[in-house]
Structure prediction request, 1192 residues.
Amino acid sequence: MQTFNYIGLAGRLSTQKAQLTTHKLIDFLRKNDVEVIISKELSELLNRTDVPSGDDHFLGTHCDLVIVVGGDGSMLGAARAMVDYGVPLLGVNRGRLGFLTDIMPKEIEEKVLDVLNGDYISEQRFMLEMVAQRDGEAFGHGHALNDIVLHPGRHVRMIEFELYVDGEFVYSQSSDGLIVSTPTGSTAYALSGGGPLMHSSLDAIGLIPLNAHSLTSRPIVISGNSEIRLLLGDKSTTIMHVTCDGQIYQRARPNDEILIRKKEQQLTLIHPSDHNYYETCRRKLGWGKHLTEQSEED
Amino acid sequence: MQTFNYIGLAGRLSTQKAQLTTHKLIDFLRKNDVEVIISKELSELLNRTDVPSGDDHFLGTHCDLVIVVGGDGSMLGAARAMVDYGVPLLGVNRGRLGFLTDIMPKEIEEKVLDVLNGDYISEQRFMLEMVAQRDGEAFGHGHALNDIVLHPGRHVRMIEFELYVDGEFVYSQSSDGLIVSTPTGSTAYALSGGGPLMHSSLDAIGLIPLNAHSLTSRPIVISGNSEIRLLLGDKSTTIMHVTCDGQIYQRARPNDEILIRKKEQQLTLIHPSDHNYYETCRRKLGWGKHLTEQSEED
Amino acid sequence: MQTFNYIGLAGRLSTQKAQLTTHKLIDFLRKNDVEVIISKELSELLNRTDVPSGDDHFLGTHCDLVIVVGGDGSMLGAARAMVDYGVPLLGVNRGRLGFLTDIMPKEIEEKVLDVLNGDYISEQRFMLEMVAQRDGEAFGHGHALNDIVLHPGRHVRMIEFELYVDGEFVYSQSSDGLIVSTPTGSTAYALSGGGPLMHSSLDAIGLIPLNAHSLTSRPIVISGNSEIRLLLGDKSTTIMHVTCDGQIYQRARPNDEILIRKKEQQLTLIHPSDHNYYETCRRKLGWGKHLTEQSEED
Amino acid sequence: MQTFNYIGLAGRLSTQKAQLTTHKLIDFLRKNDVEVIISKELSELLNRTDVPSGDDHFLGTHCDLVIVVGGDGSMLGAARAMVDYGVPLLGVNRGRLGFLTDIMPKEIEEKVLDVLNGDYISEQRFMLEMVAQRDGEAFGHGHALNDIVLHPGRHVRMIEFELYVDGEFVYSQSSDGLIVSTPTGSTAYALSGGGPLMHSSLDAIGLIPLNAHSLTSRPIVISGNSEIRLLLGDKSTTIMHVTCDGQIYQRARPNDEILIRKKEQQLTLIHPSDHNYYETCRRKLGWGKHLTEQSEED
Prediction:
């Protein structure tokens, strides 16, 4: 197991309580001989002039672990910012279990100490990268841990596009768009859109149509090594959007091409050693517990 | 049966063929002693200075029937324009059967003659009306034959709102929006969104969440006389949209209220006498024919 | 408001606790000058020789209210048994809120006293009746509060049938069967099968295909006064089943006809006066509460 | 490319036309110097005493290719019968394109000649194997190309079971059963049950609940190398069924365990060289063609 000596701190702290939690985490890490670096945003918010701070590049090049305090949304941002530096992420939530932030605030010192002692699970998650092309020229780039989504930017409902996988034509579709999802993203927007849950270790990509006009356009699961090409139809004259993790977006126009594939550099997630994927699903999705634990019912 | 002496013509004619069809229809109607009035748009497009033309108000006040040449989308526009004048509509498609345009171009003279002779089916369809309120003041109005839809105007995915029916709180929801659909609209966008088909004669309204975050937010069917209130959440700062039939939209902001209910004035649809609702469904949706008509299969 | 002087008690009491609750309820009712009659099953189970008991017919003809202790399943049985006698039902659950049993054990005396004092809500729910015909002869009958379901009786998956509504052919279908559901049943099996929730006051029937071979066979909502006819296909030679509320079943064969329509006699449900349909949905289905009540999240 | 000198013929020929097709195919193969062996069933049906015939074992040990005339159902049976002999299969349909039978009767000689000349595509498809255990003892075995399905054998709707994947508890479920599907089966029953389409080359298994009581029990896609264990609940006393490809079934009881995993021996499918997976999907599922090929619509 790798040991972590330089740990970055990032995240979004919207409450006093979360700020207090983070102050305590900083002190706890330092007491354990860890060099702590905090993000510019945290530095301003916490007013900790005693702690070195830096931007994403500084954190990426100086840290061997970044702890993110916040929700799954904060983790998505940190993932996109840190993946190219190869820095692993550890997520602490602010009171409600997330799929990516699996340490609860009250157990933070215990779990972080375990991690410092090498008692943790390390897991690779692949991300997607996107290139938007017009007339053969790239004009937009992006990457995402959860999903890359094509959808209409404004009030016009339906858009039209052709889908190609590994050079083969799959279908044309009139719909509210398409979600291209990693296994990590399969518990997020893709699930709302009717996609299947894909185990986090699966090497597969989900293609989930959003409210497709044709009722037979169903979610498709393809190999994680597939190259996906979306050719935007020229019927509608609107500006479409291509979003990365629902946080960053790129405008696109009819006849543009959107190319999506697995990003070469993968993300490393650090979990406490008692992490269990299916237990997180049960808790977040309300799946049934063991039959013997269930209360009586008719 | 009512007889039709003043017939308006409206629609969208994107092809030479559709224009030719309309020229022939005008001549056919006149040959049958009908006073024909065409819309301003058709007048310009067809260059028929020999035929009186007028705007929606003129058609609405002078015609006792309006024939719409186009797709279902053209019918939706005509319905919103004509409903307050109480003028019935008859739909002619441009080569592909619609749910609302059920006369095929090649049978147009035969079917229209039947209608002139009083051999037709007349059907009432209710519409929805919408009022958008801010701080208790109405700032937007609209009405729709198919659906009134709340959705995010731009790239932000999820919006938050509370739903009330007849004054009772139903649920709060985080989703891509909500479709409020008439039975007429249940074969359109609502069906793509996972809603049930509602028979055109049913006095009911469908509430269909769009990609709801919670998997238990499911389509609800309520009485056609229900009053629906959407209270937009103040979490997101974005501009939302409320669309009528996907064609007209109204911007809305957090804390605005959207009130939706059945419009008092109903729309009259005229169908050829061999019109059959379920047959249209079978043809448009590809439902199974009689078992005895099916080809052999394993 | 009607007052209740002769109250029947029925239900299924699988635990000591539920039996104790029922003993206390009997004593409480008697203390309040109510004549109590218990079902044969309860009489044996509780060994209450001091309380008159009788079969369904006796309860139906002597009681002006029947209180059912149990789950929704117990209520379904009581509904089918009592509907023809016009006796209203009041449901007490055994620790977990049901859609039909909306009094919790701990509040039983308070709520029942309210009902005795005339402080209650009375609601009509329609039921479905079914006739199975072979060669024009009826060979089976049934009725149901939730649903009447056609499905294959054994391991053969797919069955074939034609669906007619009010004499009109709707479609033929190859599937695992069809749920014909009342609004009451729309929160039960029909919901699991992908049907919409229908408000309990809606005069409508839901037709929900079970795993239809064709992806375009979708739930349909039709008028509550519709007559439904299922014509079983002759392709498969298996014995099919037609179930009422999932509790009673009738065998059927290829070429049999199943006729389903609203039962003339309706069921009266008695609710505590604070009963709220949508609140039950929120609690049973986990729908979102008021936005202001939600805990913070990212 | 392998050349085929000993070719078996199997299938179901329900029409005169299909029999004629098969007679011609036999003669065509012999004219091309192929040794033809027909199944016992075909031998009786066609009354071809001039052609050697044999049972599954004989075909499996003597043939280097088996051509199946019939529908996808016939191919499933042949797959289960031939997989352990390692004999590849080629499918000829009887007039309607199947997912597995992709040669049309009218093109049979042309396509089969191509295959004989080595001009074909060879594809591996994995199958599932199942062991049913009671008190630690295996009492039932099976294997399937499409799916292994747990469902109630009779009229009782809901069954209860616990799902484990690779030894980890996933969830308990109350439902009409569970489909465990290969990518090959993802276009069959699994699709009707709401599962995603999985590309035929994907190394993954789909777990699709049938009408689950909890609306959050959704399809899950896991690694093709996963070991699945279903532990049947002891609540219901009914006999359940475990079916292989919907054709063979095994009874099971409460507390039995069903173990399912990838079968070691894979199946080889032979396709004409112009075979295209997505084109078959487009034709069978009615997916949209190229946008430029679509007819005008509103």
About this structure: The helical segments of chain C are 16-31, 40-46, 56-62, 72-82, 108-116, 189-192, 277-285. The first strand of chain C starts at residue 6 and ends at 11. Residues 8 and 138 of chain C are 33 Å apart (CA to CA).
